[in-house]
Amino acid sequence: MPARTLPRRAFLEFLGIGIASVLVAQCFPLKQKKEPKISWKPIPPSDLDRLELAVGYRYELLIRWNDPISAYDHFGFNNDFMAFIPLDRNQLNDGFLWVNHEYPDARFISGYFRQNDTKKTREQVDKELYEVGGTVLRVRLEHHKWHVVKDDPLNRRLHGLTEIPFNWNEPIAGSRSAIGTVGNCAGGVTPWGTFLTCEENYDLFYGERDFESGKRITYDGDFEWHQYYDYPPEHYGWVVEVDPRTGAAQKHVALGRCAHECATVKELPDGRVVVYTGDDANDQCLYKFISSTPSSLSEGVLYVANLDEGRWIPIDHAQQALLQKHFRNQTETLIRLREAAHLLGGTSLDRPEDIDINPVNGDVLVTLTNNLSRGNYTGSILKIIEKDGKYDALEFRSETFLTGGPETGFACPDNMAFDPAGNLWFTSDISGAVMNNEDYPQYLPFKNNSLFVVPIKGDQAGQVIRIANAPTGAEFTGPLFSPDGKSLFLSVQHPGENTPSPDQVNSHWPDGGNSIPKPAVVVIYGDFTV
Ligand code: FEO
Ligand code: CA
Ligand code: CA
Ligand code: CA
């Protein structure tokens, strides 16, 4: 319906303008001229199998799992982090969209169902290998709507069989390259026009090395790929850089090996870069890499945060006697980053996930999702204030920016994004095991996972406002604003995660009817910068 035919109330709601604020303005005409008040209208929590949006927003499906992107390739599973790089600086509405594919769900990919007590076959594992990694998509804004340019020659996949070299001067576990990238959770963008994708829960694919015995450790409920492929665990857990123009990729050893959630890059005035990254596991640490030369992710020093002392501690074998006692060299130190970080006094945090830098005031925010082992159910968002506002400072202050819980109305913050006005948007990651589960009453008030905004100014400044609810079992991930700030790309990951069996799915999102659930990317349109 054209906007001008809407009744006034509906039209205001369509614009996201609160009726109450308009009525207040009409009843109390102010002597001094006041800007018209615009506000976000929150929606209540929901446990329905729907993607719900606040008044003033609508969404369109951009692409879903298994949709073809070229004659050879299709869109992978469990889409997560997204980033956009325009083809050309003067044409911001046409470019590369990177999308991570974090992990497979065999029930939908190959029909394998663990409870049948059968072993996963090599053929089933091979199907999963293709579904992880990432996708480069050419996307374009046409007629006010974003589209995938189907069959564009720039569309491509990286996956579990793509050979990727290490950017390092020594072999890693005997090899100069790795086969595949896995666990691709969040990431970043470099100032020189490449994407960073982070290998998070890498040990679920090929296990981990017990460094005392040299044996592979595997876990109940992992993806069982190690049964058929003997790739070294040391080849995973890195930050991977991808050039969307060529598809060339490299694994950056200098950024260390852990369950990297993200790699958030800030360019310094002299062209050097700082990269913030968190290790998403209970009691793990926050890191930053400071390059010593411009535009480098290999030359520089990696630091771990000590929050009590407000210090960034160098993880440098050459200058740390403690590291020399435990590790043979810098390569081994970086492979065993967690141990090195704790030896040096890195602060244990409650699952440091996404990190974002406010483009308006420069704040560095870090989501601390939760830590059930410490009784922290609902998590928080941490603020890092670098000394003198310099991102390469070695001293900082920190404070809690927001705390999850019934009072603030959110739990388990995960991915964040800032809109061009500096409002914070973030998604929640209440895990499927505890969401809407009577055994975990701490989570019941929040229902399904959601998307929130925290306005930076105005009457709602600092409030946590629920803007979208995810379908059953899903998590919103990878929020990404288009360059003009008018569209929000959002991943809907693992709908129907708690499906009891492949023929009894508990979500039919996005296709409805009797369809199986499919992870998908949506684009939300509306007013994001009120
Ligand atoms: Fe893949 Fe830490 O979320
Ligand atoms: Ca995440
Ligand atoms: Ca982010
Ligand atoms: Ca998460």
Which structural class do the helices and strands define? Answer: mainly beta
Head-to-tail CA distance between termini: 23 Å
Main sheet specs: 6 strands, mixed
Strand content: 25-35%
**Over the alpha carbons, how many angstroms does the gyration radius reach?**
23 Å
CATH second-level architecture: 6 Propeller
Question: Helix and strand layout, with pairings?
Answer:
Layout: H1 8-14, H2 19-27, E1 52-53, E2 58-64, E3 79-88, E4 91-101, H3 106-109, H4 122-131, E5 133-142, E6 145-148, E7 156-158, E8 163-167, E9 177-179, E10 184-189, E11 195-199, H5 203-206, E12 208-209, E13 216-217, E14 239-242, E15 249-252, E16 264-267, E17 273-278, E18 282-284, E19 286-291, E20 300-306, E21 311-314, H6 321-326, H7 330-335, H8 337-343, E22 349-350, E23 352-357, E24 364-368, E25 380-386, E26 396-403, E27 413-418, E28 424-428, E29 450-454, E30 465-469, E31 475-481, E32 487-493, E33 520-525
Parallel strand pairs: 8-15
Antiparallel strand pairs: 1-30, 2-33, 3-4, 4-5, 5-6, 5-7, 8-9, 10-11, 11-14, 12-13, 14-15, 16-17, 17-19, 18-22, 19-20, 20-21, 23-24, 24-25, 25-26, 27-28, 28-29, 29-30, 31-32, 32-33
This protein binds MU-OXO-diiron (FEO) and calcium ion (3 copies).
